[in-house]
Amino acid sequence: MSEDDNNMEEYPTEIHDYLTAFEKSLGSVDEMLKTMMSVSRSELLQKLDPLEQAKLDLVSVYALNSMFWVYLATQGINPKEHPVKQELERIRTYMNKVKEIADKKKASKLDKGAASRFVKNALWEPNAENEHTSKTPAKGKKRQ
């Protein structure tokens, strides 16, 4: 028997696809962590503006707490009853605040001068010339 055959007997075949996807995801996380660890934190932070620094810190701490969540689950501990759940919720709250700040930064600014000119030109103002032409029939041609 090969090693793969032995591994297949250890767990139900229904979860094989899930385990394969999980293993692939772990490989991706490992690659990203190696990339992040290859650059010093101070060097990385120098290249980022404060908003980007906050995003990086939040993503890092969220990933770390998520991995701890998975660790707890693998140890048979219910992570929903562990303080890590409140920590993840707290981090999500801050992520939403940073997202709101980023959205406000991206939002278009109102040019009050242009808006007032637009409204002023869009409004119809009657004057003597307009009143005279409005009394002529709008439909049909004039009879001679």
From TrEMBL:
<feature type="region of interest" description="Disordered">
    <location>
        <begin position="121"/>
        <end position="144"/>
    </location>
</feature>
<protein>
    <recommendedName>
        <fullName>Nuclear nucleic acid-binding protein C1D</fullName>
    </recommendedName>
</protein>
<dbReference type="InterPro" id="IPR011082">
    <property type="entry name" value="Exosome-assoc_fac/DNA_repair"/>
</dbReference>
<dbReference type="GO" id="GO:0000178">
    <property type="term" value="C:exosome (RNase complex)"/>
</dbReference>
<keyword id="KW-0238">DNA-binding</keyword>
<keyword id="KW-0698">rRNA processing</keyword>
<keyword id="KW-0963">Cytoplasm</keyword>
<comment type="subunit">
    <text>Monomer and homodimer.</text>
</comment>
<dbReference type="GO" id="GO:0010468">
    <property type="term" value="P:regulation of gene expression"/>
</dbReference>
<comment type="similarity">
    <text>Belongs to the C1D family.</text>
</comment>
<dbReference type="GO" id="GO:0005737">
    <property type="term" value="C:cytoplasm"/>
</dbReference>
<dbReference type="GO" id="GO:0005730">
    <property type="term" value="C:nucleolus"/>
</dbReference>
<comment type="function">
    <text>Plays a role in the recruitment of the exosome to pre-rRNA to mediate the 3'-5' end processing of the 5.8S rRNA.</text>
</comment>
<dbReference type="GO" id="GO:0003677">
    <property type="term" value="F:DNA binding"/>
</dbReference>
<keyword id="KW-0694">RNA-binding</keyword>
<dbReference type="InterPro" id="IPR007146">
    <property type="entry name" value="Sas10/Utp3/C1D"/>
</dbReference>
<dbReference type="GO" id="GO:0000460">
    <property type="term" value="P:maturation of 5.8S rRNA"/>
</dbReference>
<keyword id="KW-0539">Nucleus</keyword>
<dbReference type="Pfam" id="PF04000">
    <property type="entry name" value="Sas10_Utp3"/>
</dbReference>
<dbReference type="GO" id="GO:0003723">
    <property type="term" value="F:RNA binding"/>
</dbReference>
